[in-house]
Amino acid sequence: MSARRQMKLGVFLHPSGHHVAAWRHPDAQPDAGINLANYRRLAYIAERARFDLVFHGDISSVQSDDLAYIGRTSRANLFEPLTLLAALSRTTRNLGLVATASTSFNDPVDLANAVATLDHLSGGRAGWNLVTSGNDHEARNFGLQHQAVHADRYDRAREFAALFSALFDARQGAVVRHSGAHFDVAAALQAERSPQIRPVVVQAGSSEPGRRLAAETADIVFTAQQTLSDAQSFYADVKSRLPLHGRDPDDLKIMPGVFPIVGETEAEARAKYELLQSLIHPVVGLSFLSNLLGGVDLSSYPLDGPLPDELPESNVSKSRPRILLDLARREHLTIRQLYLRIAGARGHWVLIGTPTHIADRLEEFFVGKGADGFNIMPPSPHGLEDFVALVLPELRRRGLFREEYEGATLRENLGLPYRPRSRPAPAAG
Amino acid sequence: MGETDRGAGQVPANAFISLQVAPRQTGAPRAGGAPEWNGGDLNRLVDLAEVAEQSGVAYILIGEPDSGDAAEVPPDLFILAAAATGATRHIGIVVGARAAHRQPYYVARKLSSIDRLGGGRAGWSIVVPAGVSRAKSAEFASVVLGLWDTWDDDAVVADKARGVFFDACKVRPLDHRGAYYAVRGPLNSSRSRQGRPVLIERLTPGDNPVLTGGDLVHLAAGSLEAARGWRRANGSRRPVALEFVLDAPAGEGELFLSGSDEAIAGRLIEIFHEGLADGFAIRTDDLARARVFLANVPGKLREAGVIAPVRDETLRDRLKLPAIARRSQAGIAEVRA
């Protein structure tokens, strides 16, 4: 009988918190996003609390041409993730360090080499979160006018991921020769075997090609799931694909993002949320709503009035505007109420309440086969401390989270096999 | 870029010393002859940065071997430099990575990130890979420099009350379209305490500079006579660090330092007093030898009043480089608003 199954927990790092207005919180440091000491503090808290990993997202551009809008968010001014995590590698010992990098513009050999360097420096704690780049702002920083269409992006991503894995799986010093539609490479990593043999690969994205890619190559999936039934069907679908690739369902950990607002009481939690919500500037809220409605300009309508009856046809997405319009009509929401509904947590799973309430919901997803763990998205400057001080003791009391790290590497703490399976784990010490 | 002639022959108040190491073959040679590295090698190099900081070295340059062999992949120097930055407080951390085969947006971001991680003490030494034209390298450098200038120094206002994080009038696209690169910008990164990383250009006496914006020259002179000639011809508009290879009889066109550490210190002091260089760039691939050098030589230079103790300042300030303010003129901002 193996030890009882426990949750895997990551911290999705964001300088002042994931709420879109967190940087305006009274306790937020103005330079939190470019302050190494702030990230050292977050990593220290995460490691002391025995989190599996910290994770940093990434986009290689300023995310909008509308600088007046993006200038009202703190998202255009961050560290580059691989360099940030390298700087944290010497002040942490057990914490996994997972950096996002896009397959759209990186070179697979360069990226594998960078991740190998981080894995060696950290003694086997590196991870790579595979994303494809979906916006034109990024494309234009890399010599292209427009982003590749979705299917082509995933085609490149699959080839990239296969090459990435092959470089780590190759016998030491052996040259990997690869010739495909996107890459033509003969290269070898010059390093000794990485401490994890193959660093942990994360896949973020829940589309059909994303699920297929995850089943083929990923060790972890980050996903956004709002309800238990959606989470369960996503979980069952992805897990069912693993045997098709010769993998055990346990070889892939599914970790939905959670945006927790914790209070000693329900009222305290609500008050924390309302404070953040009150800080959303109308320009930010409106831009957010306009983008979701396919670029409609709402600036001439009163904020505290209803959406206009007729909206111009969108050429972006037809289903999402319809869902928002139906929601607004059904609940008689004003424009302001509608953007407040969606802008704060940017579509992630929001949990507001007492430690017991939040632990109940996490346990429900975990036990009900909707998740193997969670990627915690602290909403505010003290969101991580709140989660650690209030929710973790409750999870531990229920035996759902570890007291101590199990292993030396990220792979061992996640309970993942060294891959490829035929190779033995590196000798201890 | 704000170059001012400080007058030929005029000796600055203090020199600086830098150490250049390559992470390749930092351990013992391994069977099979393949140049391999592991975590121990990397962490020894990061340790060396800490020792160099304590010894009063102005900056450590972590460089790639200039073998030009594309099949030899050294560890990722940006990652290594970032780890060294996290382990130190004051010393400059300079990345000497082959660049022009990479994406300039990524290189600009990583260097900017390392610069801000360390509070303004990063540098970039441009290495032109074999087979890449100087024109391409020059365009690459100009794109990276241009991206660093897409934010004004005072763009981030973080005004919580008004809800303005950065001033949209002080951030602008680059819109570069050249023979080799097309990059829109702006960079997704504000400027560091020193504005942007210090740019180092390595020259031999016959070279034409690749860049016009290099802050500092590493002169691989070949002989002291050649160094004197170069100095006469070029004045001292930009600070010059004279490059020496430690111990090993240098290859063609390289100066080397040999003898006891006492003798080495004496030689460097003499060269400094002649006004031949503003600083010294000491190269070695032998980390154990580097440690002995650090234990003995910088202290003697400090006692002789040749180098200053390392303080909490930006690398640009330490090297007495002119500030490189980046501010829009009010009129431009108004037009854009």
Q: What tags apply to this protein structure?
A:
heterodimer, A: 429 residues, alpha/beta, eight-stranded parallel barrel, two-stranded antiparallel sheet, globular, B: 337 residues, 9 helices, 32% helix
Write a compact overview of the structure shown.
The complex is a heterodimer of chains A (429) and B (337). In chain A, 38% of the residues lie in helices and 14% in strands.
Protein architecture, described:
The complex is a heterodimer of chains A (429) and B (337). Chain A is of the alpha/beta class. In chain A, 38% of the residues lie in helices and 14% in strands. The longest helix of chain A is centred in the middle third of the chain and has 20 residues, at 150-169. Residues 422-429 of chain A have low confidence and may be disordered. Chain B is α/β, with parallel strands linked by helices and 337 residues long. Chain B has 9 helices and 13 strands. Chain B has helices at residues 39-55, 77-87, 104-117, 134-148, 224-234, 261-273, 287-303, 315-318, 330-336; strands spanning 16-21, 59-63, 92-96, 122-125, 156-159, 164-166, 176-177, 182-183, 198-203, 216-219, 240-246, 255-257, 279-283. Chain B has an 8-stranded parallel beta barrel with strand order 1-2-3-4-9-10-11-13, surrounded by 4 helices. A two-stranded antiparallel ribbon of chain B has the order 5-6. A two-stranded antiparallel sheet of chain B has the order 7-8. In chain B, helix 1 (39-55) links the parallel strand 1 (16-21) and strand 2. In chain B, helix 1 (39-55) runs parallel beside helix 7, helix 2 packs parallel to helix 3 and helix 3 (104-117) crosses helix 4. The chains are: A alpha/beta (429), B alpha/beta (337). At the A-B interface, helix 2, helix 3 and helix 4 of A face helix 1, helix 2, helix 3, strand 6 and strand 8 of B.
